[in-house]
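Preliminary data (for renewal application), zinc ion complex.
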Amino acid sequence: MKYAIFGDIHSNLEALEAVFEDVEEQEVDRLFCLGDLVGYGANPIEVLERVRERAEVIVAGNHDHAMAGILPLSHFNEFAREAAEWTVSEINQEHIRFLGRLPLIEEIDDLSVVHATFVSPYEFNYIMNDQQAAENFEELDTSLGFVGHSHVPMNFLERDDIRYSAAQKVELEDGLRLIVNTGSVGQPRDEDPRASYVIYDDEKGVIENRRVEYDIEMAAQKIKDAGLPAKLGERLFKGK
Ligand code: ZN
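Predicted structure:
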């Protein structure tokens, strides 16, 4: 079975469609979404609807819950707040209810998905170092955990100790547990502007980060045309 795990789409329809094409080519069986469907980009409705059609599991990101009023916008920076206010004015009540009802964490077979951390999913903290990874492995009930939120793909491997790895491919072994950050579909921040997501192949025992080119020009132009902060389009070209 092949699983695609993806998140942080942030209303970037061009990036999402490119990832879905890649998912199709890779003959993925099941799709799980790590949240932050909306915020920043210009196509919240199309992204919401396409993800709902395709993903079997969707957990809430901080932007999703902010749109539904569960999180205050005050913890966002200026650009995120402006984009959130614009998004709320675009989507309808049903979309808002849908976002507000998304669960924070889900377990499916041997894997768990959460937007930010397993320690306290509702706080939307980051897993960026070995210490934070260790705390999260303690709370993780499965051998594999997938997260997003930082928009930077990375892996933490736990055997006797905890090891950070930026490898694009990780081979699974008995006794090895993993926390994998899948990076971001719609607003990568690791200086690689290509859309980022992960495929987990449980027959081959491989987890692979995939990078997919998409029409950044178009996504940035739409951000401009929508009257959203131009910086949100410009950063897509840099991937940071
Ligand atoms: Zn995000």
